[in-house]
Amino acid sequence: MTDTVEDVRKGLPSASAFGRLALCPGSFTMEKSCPDESSEAAAEGTLLHRYMEYLLLKDDAAEEGMEFSWHDFLNSREYESAELNHEQVELCGRALRLLDDVKEKIMGRNYSDSLFSLVSTEERRFLSDWIEGGEYSGQWDALFRVGVDLLVLDWKFGRVAVDSAEANRQLEALVPLAAQKANEEGIIYNGIYAAIIQPRVAGPASVTFYDDEAISQAEQDSLAVARAAMDPDAPRYCSEEACRYCRAKAVCHEAASMVEQASLIATDRDKWELFSPAEKVQAYRLAKMAKKWAAAVDYRFEQDVAAGLIPGFEMAPGRTSFTVTDPSGAFSALNAEFPDEVTAEAFAGCCKVGITELDRLVHAARKAADPKATTKASREWLRQLLAEYGESKTTKGSVKEVEGGAA
Ligand code: SF4
User: For the chain, which residues make up each domain, given as ranges?
Assistant: First the structure.
């Protein structure tokens, strides 16, 4: 794959940035002068999106009695070979379970899978109402037909909750693109559901519905965001939310000025307890912003150090980790060496069972016995059966802003 992000997007604003562009239109031009950033998180996001696409296509193909493997899928797209670790497979399993919940929410508890069909995955489209070639583009992760409606879906694999589906600018920009595709391809629909599934964030998927009027409004609002961003003199407005994923942070004057403000909060009342709630909220937001700004500066500095551009600094070597990917082979090899010490029981004590893989295995077995078995019922059945052999854990909660936070 040799296409760059700019090639694919033809230099136009993309729906994935609309949340930021609505808050800071000037960031579109600012980002153009900044290099693309690569990070482990971004690489993981790409891998997880590919795996989710594979899972959806695989399920779709299974309906037609066809099968293909993860490696077949990677080869067909000319993607590099890649493996997911246990946690990543679990995460994708959770994303699919959340999708099942979305289906149930839309169709009711006794929905039938036959009312759901995949229309397309990872498709980018361009929208314009008067400029040839488009004014902005957007790529959905999946588009489904749901009975007489459509469902446009976006997976998010970060740990920070994004805007709800209702308030989400990216989905708002994708909805007119989905409508455009349906109109061009003669797909009849009443309205469009839009959903965000964030498997690393607690809680259900966020879903909203656009009727004809809302779709048309979404198109006008999205074109307005794109047009404002394309203005070379568009203003820049700094905020934690706007700057969070902006590549221009390390060089943006507005962002640096905001970080500077952090020092103004601590007045002569040098006790946290003496700050008002509003001052604490301000400090909290500035701290988040400062962390992002620091990470952006770290990233650019590290690039320069790696390129040998900063005298007195060099990159230290990274750490290597090792993962067992074939437990039964590993057990046979170790048991042959130490038959009395590495017993099946001792080895099992070192293993973790992938619940997602087990879910799939058990569901396939239950479905073979009863074609009406749903994935959700199979999951519930399995957890009940294995209750005494496993444990459920809930992670520590995180700060969440409600009703716009304190003033
Ligand atoms: S860093 Fe913030 S203020 Fe600067 S261009 Fe990006 S979003 Fe706008």
Answer: 5-230, 240-306, 327-387
Q: Give the pair of three-digit tokens for residue 169.
A: 């600018």
For residue 270, what pLDDT is reported?
A: 73
Give the chain's radius of gyration (CA, Å): 24
11-69 pLDDT, tens digit each: 899 999 999 999 999 999 999 888 887 788 889 999 999 999 999 999 888 878 888 89
Cα–Cα distance for residue pair 376/378, rounded to 1 Å: 5
Candidate from 37, 225, 236 with most ligand 1 atoms within 8 A of CB, to mutate = 236
Angle at 117 between CA 375 and CA 222, to 5 degrees: 115
| pLDDT value at residue 2 | 43
C-alpha 400/C-alpha 165 separation (Å) is 16
d(CA 331, CA 323): 14
Q: Is 30 in the pocket of ligand 1 (CB under 6 A)?
A: yes
Task: Give the Cα separation of 129 and 219 in Å (integer).
Answer: 9
Q: Whose C-alpha lies nearest to ligand 1, atom 7?
A: 243
What pTM was estimated for this model as a whole?
A: 0.77
Taking the alpha carbons of 254, 257, 262, 267 in that order, is the dihedral positive or negative? negative
Cβ pair 170, 154 in contact under 8 A: yes
The reply to whether ligand 1 has any atom less than 6 angstroms from the CB of 296 is no
271-306 CB burial, b ≥16 within 10 A, e <16: eeeebeeebeebeebbebbbebbeebeebbeeeeee
Query: Which pair of tokens denotes residue 378?
Result: 């199979």
Of the pLDDT bands very low, low, confident and very high (cuts 50, 70, 90), residue 1 is: very low
The one-letter code for the residue type at 255 is A
Angle, vertex CA 156, rays to CA 152 and CA 160, nearest 5: 135
Please indicate whether residue 247, judged by its CB atom, sits closer than 6 Å to ligand 1: no
Parallel, antiparallel or unpaired: strands 192-197 and 149-155: parallel
Condensed to tens digits (0 to 9), the pLDDT of residues 118-165 reads 999 999 999 876 666 689 999 999 999 998 899 999 999 998 888 899
Which one, of 119, 105, 118, lies nearest residue 207 by Cα?
105
* For residue 359, pLDDT beyond 90: no
- CATH number of 5-230, picked from 3.30.70, 3.40.50, 3.90.320, 3.10.100: 3.90.320
